[in-house]
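Supplementary material to the annual report.
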Amino acid sequence: MLPLSSAAGSDTVFHHLLRVYWEDTDAGGVVFYANYLKFFERARTEWLRALGLGQQALRDSTGAIFVVTDTQVRYLWPARLDDELRVSVDLKKRGSASLSIAQQAWCGQRLLAEGEIRIGCVDAHSFRPRRLPTEVSSLLP
Amino acid sequence: MLPLSSAAGSDTVFHHLLRVYWEDTDAGGVVFYANYLKFFERARTEWLRALGLGQQALRDSTGAIFVVTDTQVRYLWPARLDDELRVSVDLKKRGSASLSIAQQAWCGQRLLAEGEIRIGCVDAHSFRPRRLPTEVSSLLP
Amino acid sequence: MLPLSSAAGSDTVFHHLLRVYWEDTDAGGVVFYANYLKFFERARTEWLRALGLGQQALRDSTGAIFVVTDTQVRYLWPARLDDELRVSVDLKKRGSASLSIAQQAWCGQRLLAEGEIRIGCVDAHSFRPRRLPTEVSSLLP
Amino acid sequence: MLPLSSAAGSDTVFHHLLRVYWEDTDAGGVVFYANYLKFFERARTEWLRALGLGQQALRDSTGAIFVVTDTQVRYLWPARLDDELRVSVDLKKRGSASLSIAQQAWCGQRLLAEGEIRIGCVDAHSFRPRRLPTEVSSLLP
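Predicted assembly:
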């Protein structure tokens, strides 16, 4: 059994653990690179949840959703089936309508991938940018 | 270049061509079995489109969406990167609120997978079953 | 935090917990039906791991891999973003080269999807059927 | 019917057409951002194929595979179910063991996403960098 997520390690960096399954791999025998964006997002979702923020609930109560506006990822080492990964979330910058988050994926002592993800807050219907709801900004570190 | 879809072969069976990309494969070196459900759905979507039905347009005009209610698939032979697959759509049964569709995926003369997919028509908000809109039933063969 | 998997509930039925993320959903606002095959597989993988079987290790030591040969799934109720699902694994039949496994996905007291998955053991290179390695058959209940 | 790919538009920029299916969308009602990496890759694969390079054949004959080492993507406008996208491939830089490729995804006259993808050539077993096989470098523009 695998503890799914925890804020261990440092005061401000959140960590999420996950396992590599068949669905994550490709014919190269390793994790398909695009899937690190999924892993990073799972970690961000658990980070928000740990802060008390459910995204479905946020949408229902404020009409706001987060969208990813920029992704930058470097792939350093491949992960394989059954590997246990530790994915970090480190909030780097808080704008009035966006967040910049540094993320890394580790397997044991090996850094597999790292990147920076920029997230914007938009209206769920119009997709127009809007300020972070106070429900969010008041909870962020 | 690959013609994306055509109604060749028989009067009533529709065919859709697609290519296997890295994203479709797994660490076994072959197409991940769950992805045949995606391939089958692409073919059904193109079949509907060839009949004059866009699903987004249908939802906008009638509030109805199709949902998959049952899937049954047998996997016979693996496909690999770069393979060109031919996916068939054969409407087997038309109910007032559902369709049963037989589908096969071929690579050349080899049958890779086959199955039967049952689709229901539901209201996009409540997910309650509803009769097929006449926009749909009037176009089906 | 979510305990990832446990054998609670019954002597023979294994359960795996997972969370619904953005990657799992589709434009209907619910979990894309094909993804239940992924959820079922994650649960089977954790069931094997709980029995002491890592699939990558099995392949390395015996040259055998499991392939899915038949899937049958009924979809009863949609899951949504942030839902916590409990996926069961119930070994129904043990052949010399295959396993039949009944699986269900629950959200709280609601059954979302259920199915039967048949798995065969094949040689990782030739994909020819082979008997279950004794490493496997000796561990199965 | 949709012509799958063509080198129209400019001498050096390749274009690939694709359709948005249910599998590509998420509960925001739009294409899940990580899937643009898949769309970009499909376009690169068809670009290589148009140059006479099959990646499976390349691996079989030289033991080399391409891996993605860096991705940078900006997301500008969401795509929806049934949209037809045009994805471009523009080779920006050729190293001895890597390629840098600028890519864009358009829907009609609207730019949806753009990015730069860096690809390295590695040995399929060791994942160690190696020079581009002459089979590749001799065909590149």
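The CA atoms of residues 59 and 65 of chain C lie 6 Å apart.
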